[in-house]
Amino acid sequence: MELSTGAIAEHLRRGGTSVVLRLEDTELPCLLYWGTDLGDAETAPILEATARPVGDSVVYANPVVALLPRHSSGWLGRPGLVGSRAGRSWSMSFDAVTHEVAEAGTPRWPDGAPGAVRVRSTGTDAVNGLVVTTELELHASGLLRLRAGVRNTGPDGYEVVSLLPALPVGEQANELLDMTGRHSRERTPQRRPFDQGSWVREAWGGRPGHDSATVLCAGEAGFGFRRGRVWGVHLAWSGNQVLTAERSPSGWRLLRGGELLLPGERVLARGEEYWSPWLVASWGEGLDELSSRVHRFLRARPQHPRSTRPVLLNVWEAVYFDHDLPHLLDLAERAAAVGVERYVLDDGWFRGRRDDTAGLGDWYVDDGVWPDGLAPLTDRVHELGMQFGLWFEPEMVSLDSDLAREHPEWLFGTGRGPGVPSRQQHVLDLGHPEAFDHVLERMSELVARYGIDFIKWDHNRPLVDAGHQPTGVPGVHVQTLATYRLMDALKSRFSGLEIESCCGGGGRLDLGVMERCDRVWVSDNIDAHERQRMQRWTSLLLPPELLGTHVGSARDHTTGRSLDLDFRAGTAVWGHLGIEWDLSAVSDADLDELGEWVAVHKSLRDLLHTGDVVRADPTDPAVWIEGVVAADRSDAAYRVAMVEHPLTDPPGRIALPGLDPDRTYRVELVAPSDGAVSPADAPAWVKGIELGGRVLAEVGLVCPRLAVDTLVLLRVTAVRRSAGGGGAPVLQDAR
Ligand code: DGJ
């Protein structure tokens, strides 16, 4: 509806979410509201209700902060677009802005994701020779995506320094949550007040990094998994990047994100354009709802892995570089016997790769170690009915390799050679078309020859001094896109080929790389105690079917901690299960037990890989409850883990969130088979109980006296509709 100001309110509604935009004819959209569905409320009055008094200073009141905040409008925070023509054309303003609203699948937006709606706004700045566009999409899940583009229409080069769109969040947002970490300790949450100023999380290593913020959230103080309004953003990009939370004295609370560009990295010639990566944004009453929107969005994509996720064996921690065929064959036999469906040969199979000092880049099977090639192994693996996976690190090169000796110019550098080594390796500049083609052809030849079903794609060092030879101009942006192209080319050549994104563990698990990957390696650290935290927080972004979760050896190779098999396996079954353990040194009793856990996973995985992820807000910090609930809420599974010594004895009750409050469920303890507690310590309900969904969420179950680093898995199945509580009369059979 038109207002006297010339502004229009546009109300988008999808997936329980409303977004209200203020659209004007000389400004990019301003987001007035983003949160719970407002129904068919008249939205034009919202313009009036939210119009800010200006007083005598537009600059200090900031009446409108657009999706790309504009310095020339009086915004005194970081401008949305920073750039110039060698010092000119640095302050954009618009002569005119047009807005187009389009539903997916209509002529205006034929290839949009089903059910989505998009607002595309284009601003023309004739004075500066720029055309600036924002695209905001609201998807069926209620997930938002936002990106911005700039096109140079001027006569000379325009350098983009940064393009950083912004999403305002509600004024309730007083607290920030994001993640940090390091190699083998990824996804550690951190919180702080959302004070005035900026909280800035940057990644300059050519990848999001092990300390990646991953999802930057702003919410009501004390927000948890099930409570408190919260908004969050993630950048779908695998190169240099930044996420910021910016709170201004004029009351704006912005979540922002974009690519970090190196000096001179994007200079647009006349007619050229640059797009920021997608800023993926979600909200919820608690983090569970926020993450369920992301999971639903991912699961709705055509490329999302829908086939049953095969249980895999990865041989890395079993053999490291010691590739001995009889041992590797023995592992294959034992793996098949415990129910493994995919066998992955890790690092060490290619020319000269006897340790981590040499060989990267020489993607030929080492004929010293593998005189008959990989066929003796791959044939047996296939005969045993398993898929075969192989490790590559395509973007890397060892100085001690034929590739580096023959093509030193393919290594990144800024004029002083290849720069500092990291893990004794350097980065292959895929911006050289010949280097790109070389790697693509080598990988293709091996995938075709050995019938490879799965690539574990590693990336063990950050990009520093990533200059493209011979000039040394920055190459990170081009490298990021080239990596995507390499993955895309392999996937289009080999239908059904799956890729795991590994980056010395979880240094690259963003939604950019996940456009073309089917699994992430959450961390090199498979200590189940640590994995409880890392998997819980990684699942804020990625659903369980994408998380590589392995059962390791009794004494963990990274931390030295010794843990029972039940805890290691019970932790690993909650994802895409794998085993990374020298099975040739495992007792028959442990192999039997491992086989039982593989069977537990197989009985769970259909539910686990499609259901809604829920987590209880702990009443005792020692007791972690995670669950997955089928979309129709007829079936659920929960894992209760004791991650430290509890505050009370017995520990506080277990509440099971996410069930249908009006159904009665049967609760059964399904694993471990010995129940994890002595009969004397076991509450009565562990023999099985029927209770209403409301009772399970509100009253809960007494927690068994679990030792630290033990867990139980519960299966919870709807048996009938109830009349509003537990154990109520049968009204209707839920199945
Ligand atoms: C780092 C990975 O994360 C490990 O799982 C393993 O693949 C090694 N690289 C191999 O070098």
Give structural notes.
This protein is α+β, with helices and mostly antiparallel strands and 735 residues long. Among the domains are: 7-299, alpha-galactosidase from lactobacil brevis (Beta-galactosidase, Chain A, domain 5, Distorted Sandwich); 613-734, Golgi alpha-mannosidase II (Immunoglobulin-like). The chain has 13 helices and 38 strands. Strands 5, 6, 7, 8, 11, 12, 14, 15, 19 and 20 form a ten-stranded antiparallel β-sheet that branches. The chain has an eight-stranded parallel β-barrel with strand order 21-22-23-26-29-30-31-32, surrounded by four helices. Strand 1 and strand 2 (17-23) form a beta hairpin. Helix 5 (325-338) runs parallel beside helix 6 (375-383). The longest helix is centred in the last third of the chain and has 21 residues, at 588-608. It is globular, with a radius of gyration of 27 Å. Mean pLDDT is 95; it is low at 724-735.
Question: What's this, in brief?
Answer:
This protein is an alpha+beta fold. The protein is 19% helix and 29% strand.
Can you lay out the helices and strands and say which pair or pack?
Layout: E1 8-14, E2 17-23, E3 30-36, H1 44-50, H2 58-61, E4 81-84, E5 96-103, E6 117-125, E7 130-138, E8 144-152, E9 158-163, E10 166-168, E11 175-180, E12 188-193, E13 197-203, E14 216-219, E15 229-235, E16 241-247, E17 253-259, E18 267-268, E19 273-275, E20 279-285, H3 287-300, E21 312-314, H4 316-319, H5 325-338, E22 342-345, H6 375-383, E23 387-392, E24 396-397, H7 402-406, E25 426-427, H8 433-450, E26 454-457, E27 467-468, E28 473-474, H9 476-493, E29 498-501, E30 519-521, H10 528-538, E31 547-551, H11 565-572, E32 576-579, H12 588-608, E33 612-615, E34 623-629, E35 635-642, E36 663-671, E37 689-692, H13 693-698, E38 710-721
Parallel strand pairs: 21-22, 21-32, 22-23, 23-26, 26-29, 29-30, 30-31, 31-32
Antiparallel strand pairs: 1-2, 2-3, 4-9, 5-6, 6-7, 7-8, 8-19, 8-20, 9-18, 10-17, 11-12, 11-14, 13-16, 14-15, 15-20, 16-17, 24-25, 27-28, 33-34, 34-35, 35-38, 36-37, 36-38
Helix pairs in contact: 5-6, 8-9, 10-11, 11-12
Bound molecules: (2R,3S,4R,5S)-2-(hydroxymethyl)piperidine-3,4,5-triol.
